[in-house]
Amino acid sequence: MSTLTQSLPTSTGNARSLAPFYLGAAADFLVGLELALFGSAVAQLLMPAHEQVLGMPAGVLLRVLGVVLIVFAIDTVIVARSRGKLARFRSWIVKSNFATAALALVLLLAAHSAFSTFGIAAIAIIAVALAGIASWQHKVS
Question: In degrees rounded to 5, what are phi and psi of residue 129?
Answer without folding.
Answer: -60, -40
